[in-house]
Design brief:
Strands 2-1-3-4-5-11 form a six-stranded parallel beta sheet, sandwiched between helices. A six-stranded mixed beta sheet has the order 7-6-8-9-10-12. It has two domains: 172 residues, Response regulator (Rossmann fold), CATH 3.40.50.2300; 136 residues, Response regulator (Rossmann fold). It starts with 5 loop residues before the first helix and ends in a 5-residue tail after the last helix. It is an alpha/beta fold. Helix 8 links the parallel strand 8 and strand 9. It contains eleven helices and twelve strands. Helix content is 39%, strand content 15%. Helix 2 packs parallel to helix 10 and helix 3 packs parallel to helix 4.
Length: 342
Amino acid sequence: MNSCKIRAFAALLSCLAIMAGCAPAADPAGPPEGAPLTEKAPTATPSGKKVWIAVIPKASTVDFWKQIQAGANQAAKDFALEAVYMQPTATLTQTKLIDDCIAKHASGIVLAPMSDKQLDGPVKKAQAAGIPVVLIDSTIKTASVTSTVATDNYRAGTLEAQRTIELLNGKGSVVLMRCSKEAEGTTAREKGFLDTIKGSGVTVLDDSYYGGNFMEGAVATSERLINNLDLAHRKGVAVVTVSATNTQAMLTALEATKVAGKVKFVGFDTSAKLLKGLKDCEIDALVVQEPYQIGYLGVKMMVTKMNGESVDPDIKTDAILADRENVNSPELKALITLPAKS
């Protein structure tokens, strides 16, 4: 296979990353303290309240979410809007952050829901308070929101399956580590993957493990999967993950158990660590999404709504496969690094 200058590419990605904001403060008169996504002075409503929006990602700090933050940052600057990036944790949940936005009279919320079920009520509560909600990365089926901006996740899952079938030459077995039972986006990827694998000649060895949204738990689950299924001694097997956190966790676990490079591995998204894994033949392919554009368009759709204009209710962004042959291609670089068109 061709050798690629992945370090240069990873450096290009890293320039998009900016540090996440702090937890919200208790001042009910305006937005939480933290790192605003723009230094421009906010406008005010006729009643004198500040106009500001919250950007709430999932509880992960992998590069995918840093790139989403960078896209949101640029949109906030382009549209002269004050936006606050509010990072959830295991204890500072998305529900608590939404409640805080309601209490502080946010003008809008751009949300990447971690749970289809648990976030339905909080989203509807925000809407009842007159706060529009734009969803990014995943959707909530039962909530009628302003707009959803996300990868075509079912198709992305089919891309993973097609490459896995090629890597195994249409035979052998695959282990799918799922992400979360309540995350619509990754569930759609899993369905696309399993629907495509069916009848291909590749059998599903196991798909019962869930990595979750937090790195520490995902690494522990990955190690259990590797050991329980004895992947170190299996032939003709591939491992597949469907999120950035789970892909990085699985690579960490494969390296720790000395199984990296002994099984085929197809994952999601990019980071310096994942691109190095691709270069070192520990990863065979990555489905690369368009996080910068997802972040940018999420904020843009909120601005469009606030201006009283027509909003596209369902925006699908692109995804392509990256491997050692195309990682430096112009198409791949453009997909990740170019800002969205305003």
